[in-house]
Amino acid sequence: MDLSNPNDPLLNAAIASIITVITIIMTLIEMEDNDRRGIAREPSLIREQWRQAHMYRILTAGPNNCVHYLRMSKGAFYGLANILRSNGSLHDTRYVCMEEQLALFLYILGHKSKNRVCGIEFIRSGETISRYFNKVLGAISTIRE
Q1: Which one of 6, 97, 103, 121 is most buried, counting C-beta atoms within 10 A?
Q2: Which of 65, 47, 94, 124 is nearest to 115 (CA)?
């Protein structure tokens, strides 16, 4: 390999190989950065089925299940949900229905529960629990007689 000759095929192949390796390394670093930043991902279908089953158990599994879990009857729960929906202060989002938002809020209040415990119960992240708790709190505060 003649370093003084820019037309040396061996030198050109070595330079091309080095550029390829650097490009691959830069791509891997960028992919790792994107993973750390939290690229939006679709929710797991299994977790979504567990969440739906959990809400079903709370609201329909037994006559007193809703009272024990949310500290209010099923009729009162749906009445409050209808009030919040009709005055426009609370609505379904892409991944969390309004009833689940209200249920996690009532669960935290009724059981003096911590954010992470509620996250385990509702299979949600702590950030999601906190966001919807504050959203429902704001919606409840808008209710007037």
Answers
A1: 103
A2: 124
